[in-house]
């Protein structure tokens, strides 16, 4: 009886290990789905900021927001935008997106040099959030449908985005903390 129970426990734990390994292995993700997930994650962080009290908590949250936005902008600018620009041939949409990124980066740099007790800190976070929300809306309503219609290999593009994102996150101190917390 004890031997049977031990075999059963081993089998069920090996199934759990197998399952967790499978879920850890990443299936190719559509580039647009990956970018939309980033958009949702950052929006949730901006919403959380509105409810956050305490300078330390605010600063940690803003550091995470800035990291997420910097990584997201980098993978879009290095991989997604060039592929989409070539495929859709809509320079106006692409140029606007790049200018919006540059403007957001200015606010990010300003926030990184500030602390929560500085004048205008909360206002700058709010403006950055509104700016990002506007940018996301344009990407999702204009650029993404055009990219999908252009029949890009969005799975392959998604894999490139995921790999570059992982590399960027692993190189940042906050990315290292995030990986440790995910274990």
Shape: globular
Sheet-strand content, in percent, reads under 5%
The SSE string, one letter per element, is HHHHHHH
Return the domain count.
1
Q: In terms of per-residue confidence, which ranges show pLDDT below 50 for 5 or more consecutive residues?
A: 1-25, 175-183
Count of DSSP-assigned helices: 7
Could you tell me the mean pLDDT? Answer: 85
- What does the radius of gyration come to? 20 Å
Q: Sheet bearing the most strands, described? A: none
Estimate the helix proportion, in percent. Answer: over 70%
Structure description:
- The protein has 183 residues and is mostly helical.
- The protein has one domain (30-182).
- 85% of the residues lie in helices and 0% in strands.
- It is built from 7 helices and no strands.
- It has helices at 2-24, 31-51, 55-88, 91-112, 121-149, 154-170, 173-182.
- It is globular.
- It starts with a helix and ends with a helix.
- The model is unreliable at 1-25 and 175-183 (pLDDT under 50).
Briefly summarize what is shown.
This protein has one domain (about 30-180).
Write the layout of secondary structure elements.
Layout: H1 2-24, H2 31-51, H3 55-88, H4 91-112, H5 121-149, H6 154-170, H7 173-182
Helix pairs in contact: 2-3, 2-5, 2-6, 3-4, 3-5, 3-6, 4-5
Characteristics:
183 residues; mainly alpha; 7 helices; globular; disordered N terminus; disordered C terminus
């Amino acid at each position: 009886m004890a031997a049977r129970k031990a075999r059963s426990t081993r089998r069920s734990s090996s199934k759990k290990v197998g399952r967790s390994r499978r879920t850890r292995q990443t299936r190719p993700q559509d580039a647009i789905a990956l970018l939309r997930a980033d958009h949702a994650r950052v929006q949730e962080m901006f919403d959380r900021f509105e409810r956050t009290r305490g300078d330390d908590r605010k600063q940690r949250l803003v550091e995470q927001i800035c990291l997420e936005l910097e990584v997201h902008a980098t993978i879009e600018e290095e991989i997604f935008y060039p592929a989409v620009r070539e495929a859709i041939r809509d320079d106006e949409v692409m140029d606007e997106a790049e200018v919006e990124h540059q403007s957001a980066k200015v606010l990010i740099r300003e926030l990184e040099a500030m602390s929560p007790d500085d004048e205008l800190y909360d206002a700058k976070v709010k403006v950055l959030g509104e700016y990002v929300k506007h940018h996301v809306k344009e990407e999702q309503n204009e650029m993404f449908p055009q990219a999908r219609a252009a029949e890009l290999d969005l799975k392959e593009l998604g894999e490139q985005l995921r790999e570059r994102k992982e590399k960027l996150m692993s190189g940042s101190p906050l990315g290292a903390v995030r990986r440790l917390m995910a274990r």
